[in-house]
Write a structure and sequence with these properties.
The complex is a heterodimer of chains A (about 475) and B (about 325). Chain A contains 15 helices and 23 strands. In chain A, a hairpin with a 5-residue loop joins β4 and β5. With about 475 residues, chain A is of the alpha+beta class. In chain A, about 30% of the residues lie in helices and about 25% in strands. Chain B is mainly α. Chain B has 2 domains: about 150 residues, no CATH class; about 150 residues, no CATH class. Chain B is about 70% helix and about 0% strand. Chain B has 17 helices and no strands. The longest helix of chain B has about 35 residues. The chains are: A alpha+beta (about 475), B mainly alpha (about 325).
Chain lengths: ~475, ~325
């Protein structure tokens, strides 16, 4: 039996490929018709081909369990998610606007703190931020940019509106999967790329490299760039090594680097010590430098902060950038955009209730069964309460947590995340998706074409994180005009 | 190239070579014993001496029996013995695991696959030969893959150096232990260890030149030395004399065309070092060692002083390793 799109029904959500009469949307017509022309056997064959490609290419991610960590094959759905180009252009502009404002905000916080003095951003929120680093006060990184690489999560609600769900300004991951998903899809459906204008994604690593080079404290000379990884046991190690390889730079661990008496950073090579200009670090702030942060960190480099403050090395992202990567700060982003750019946000925030505000907190506590509650500084979907799916005991526990530490929680209405057709045991079924585009900020700003679409593979699930049963899809930005 | 990466792939190559050499050693010894008289107790203990693990072997139980079962188990699968085949493969895999990008993907898959095979197929007495053959075949496949797919950049040179240093080391160990049993020492007659009491021994004392003809068992032991290094055929082609102690030693020490011989190994190390930066100190060590090797009068040493000479070689190899480590890994 081949696919009959009329049998496909998204459960009251916006579907990325089909409209509410189960007709393919303009940009996805070619794909949907093509898929419907395939027999079950064909489809199975394509799926197997994709799995094989993933295995052969060694695309893995690491999962922590109590018994240790294991490499798992990257779960991938062969049906792409499609966004029409004219819609994407708006999102692209909105993301640039957002990241530009966030960078101005971070720079301000570590210098004059005008936004506090003007009463737009409450000083007590900053005072309680766990990601504000006093060690960064007064430092002026190249171009005034702190968050060079940002991954913002976008979701679409029932009415088709796209919202920013959160910004990841510390060490966002996933971009390697975005790139590899495209490679796999090209292998599985080469014919589809012939008949439509699907925007390419592959120049990301070149853009990343150029941006990193632009941060070098020794402009003019050939810059030595490295990727700093916590090591093979990190869940994103595949990505670290992938990016290093694609950029043709060394993948280093903390023990490979040292800071000299001249405050310069050197790596230990077989040729001797070689000066490093730019470090794309994939280690959290607190582990970067035992001299400045956690003294027990063996992942970092002693003296790295000293070198960075002295302007002898560039760090991307800059330490302290995570101050804007806080779900309470998130709630203020519309005001932040208005304050620094005097513009209205092009992409709205999900309405958020700040538990630190008495009125909001009362509302949240009274409506826990309808809301999603998030801790201010967790990522990866950990420590969240999805009200409608939670048990009364879980809700009660969260009510206590909120009362104990209101600053640490925000709540948002449960969105009906959009769905996209996903191949589940031979059937095309709607599954919830989100989207993580990556934004590079240097002398200019670049947004990936599309981004990483993550999909909740379990029926009805809203959790898209790969550590919790999520998978991913290739994301196509399709130009339908004049074609 | 990062020092850590260089160090990891150097050790990866050493461990792969070690697994192969150990597998060869066990196989040849098994074969040799089948040819020796039944009542000889010469047996498996020399293998423990060859790998230099006597302390470890007897650590838990000084009276531990060095019989086939115990020794083979110790050499193949003992996880507490860091140079057992299984431990070596695990170490090779672990070294590569953290630096996978430095070698072709297939090599990682092979090493990973071989480790899993060895872990899951620990042999019975009957399956042992096949198991060891698999280990040897697979390690050679890995070496072939690395040779055939790696650009001749620094990464390859560290693979190369690790392999040849380990191989030279193993060859000296085999020569040391075997020749200690086969060559006369301090005026004592040579002979099969712990089993000198047959007629040919007393005759050989008075007529050493006839020994190979008088003692077929000694003869086959020298053959086994050659065979453990896959050197028998090449020896026959190049030396064209009967298999005798001094000739075998000369071949394995000084012949620079046989790839498991010490001279060949040192030449390879030298070549690699010449392509690497900052190699002056290591090259000097290497040159001294080659000089020492090439000027040695092997037939004289075969009569007296072989053990001391090989000791010197091993110290030299240790110095060469230390020099490589100091220059490239530890600064």
């Amino acid at each position: 039996m081949t696919i009959d799109w009329k049998q496909y029904a998204s459960p009251g959500c916006y579907d990325e490929l089909l409209d509410d009469r189960s007709q393919p949307r303009a940009a996805s017509r070619t794909l949907c018709e093509y898929l419907a022309s395939l027999s079950d056997g064909d489809l199975r064959e394509r799926k197997t081909a994709a799995e094989l490609a993933i295995m052969v290419m060694g695309i893995t991610f690491t999962v922590y369990t109590e018994g240790g960590s294991i490499d798992r094959a990257w779960p991938f759905d062969i049906v792409p998610r499609i966004i029409p180009k004219h819609e994407w252009d708006r999102t692209d502009a909105g993301l640039k606007q957002r990241v530009q404002a966030l960078n101005l905000f971070i720079d301000d916080l570590y210098h004059d703190q005008k936004i506090l003095k003007d009463g737009v951003f409450p000083a007590e929120v900053l005072a309680q931020s766990v990601n504000f680093r006093p060690q960064c006060i007064g430092v002026s990184p190249q171009h005034g940019i702190w968050a060079h690489i940002c991954g913002s999560d976008l979701v679409r609600d029932k009415d088709g509106t796209i919202y920013v769900l959160e910004d990841n300004l510390r060490v966002p991951s996933g971009v390697s999967y975005m790139l590899e998903n495209r490679v796999v899809t090209k292998r599985v459906f080469p014919e589809l790329f012939e008949y439509q204008r699907i925007q390419p994604v592959d120049d990301y690593t070149l853009r990343l490299y150029d941006m990193l080079v632009s941060l070098s404290p020794r402009p003019g000379d050939a810059a030595t760039v490295v990727v700093l990884t916590p090591g093979i046991y990190n869940s994103a190690y595949f990505e670290h090594s992938y990016l290093a390889q694609q950029m043709g730079v060394e993948l280093v661990e903390g023990s490979d680097l040292e800071v000299g008496d001249d405050d310069c950073v050197y790596m230990r090579t077989i040729e001797g010590l070689e000066r490093v200009d730019v470090i794309y670090r994939r280690i959290d702030d607190l582990f970067l430098d035992p001299e400045a942060f956690r003294p027990d960190s063996s992942l970092g480099v002693k003296g790295l902060m000293r070198a960075w403050r002295a302007g002898k090395v560039a760090l991307a992202n800059a330490p302290g950038a995570g101050v804007a990567d806080d779900k309470v700060v998130y709630a203020f982003v519309p005001e932040i955009i208005k304050y620094y750019l005097d513009q209205d946000p092009l992409i709205p925030n999900v309405p958020s209730y700040l538990c630190m505000r008495d009125k909001d907190r009362e509302y949240v506590l009274a409506n826990l069964d309808k809301l999603v509650v998030k801790p201010a500084n967790e990522s990866g979907g950990y420590g969240m309460l999805v009200g409608p799916h939670a048990t009364p005991t879980e809700r009660k526990r969260f009510a206590e947590l909120i009362q104990k530490d209101p600053r640490n929680y925000i709540a948002q209405p449960t969105l009906s995340l959009s769905t996209s057709p996903t191949l589940c045991e031979g059937q095309m079924e709607p599954r919830h998706v989100d989207l993580r585009p990556f934004i590079l900020s240097g002398p200019s700003t670049y947004v990936t074409t599309g981004g990483l679409t993550r999909v909740a593979l379990r029926k009805g699930s809203l959790v898209v994180n790969s550590s919790q049963g999520g998978g991913s899809k290739d994301t196509w930005i399709v130009d339908t005009e004049g074609f | 190239m990062l020092s850590r990466v260089a160090q990891n792939i150097y050790w990866m190559a050493r461990y792969v070579e070690r697994a192969e050499d150990t597998a060869r050693l066990i196989n040849v010894n098994s074969n040799l014993l089948l040819d020796l008289p039944r009542n000889t107790t010469f047996g498996w203990l020399p293998l423990i001496f060859i790998v230099g693990a006597e302390d470890l072997f007897f650590e838990k139980d000084p009276k531990r029996l060095a019989d086939e079962n115990n020794v083979v188990k110790f050499l193949i699968s003992d996880r507490d013995h860091p140079s057992s085949i299984l431990s070596s493969l695990a170490a090779a895999r672990e070294n590569l695991r953290t630096t996978r990008d430095a070698v072709p993907q297939e090599a990682w898959e092979q090493i990973n696959g071989l480790y899993i095979y060895a872990r899951d197929h620990l042999p019975t007495r009957r399956g042992r030969y096949e198991f060891l053959r698999q280990v040897i075949r697979n390690t050679q496949q890995i070496s072939g893959l690395l040779d055939g797919a790696m650009s001749r950049t620094a990464a390859y040179e560290f693979v190369h150096m690790g392999r040849y240093l380990e191989r030279a080391d193993m060859t000296t160990r085999i020569l040391d232990v075997r020749s200690a049993n086969l060559l006369p020492r301090s005026g004592q007659p040579a002979g099969s260890p712990q089993e000198p009491a047959d007629q040919s021994q007393s005759q050989s004392q008075s007529a050493p030149s006839d020994r190979t003809e008088q003692d077929p068992f000694e003869n086959i032991q020298w053959m086994s030395v050659l065979k453990s290094l896959t050197a028998y055929q090449m020896y026959r082609q190049q030396v064209r004399s009967r298999v005798g102690g001094p000739d075998v030693l000369k071949f394995l020490l000084q012949n620079d065309s046989f790839p498991r011989g010490i001279s060949f190994c040192l030449k390879q190390l030298d070549c690699s070092l010449r392509t690497l930066p900052r190699s002056d100190a290591a090259l000097a060590t290497s040159a001294a060692l080659q000089q020492q090797l090439n000027t040695a009068a092997v037939p004289d040493l075969a009569r007296e002083g072989m053990h001391e000479f090989i000791d010197q070689l091993q110290i030299g190899l240790g110095q060469l390793h230390a020099s490589i480590a100091k220059t490239y890994f530890e600064h």
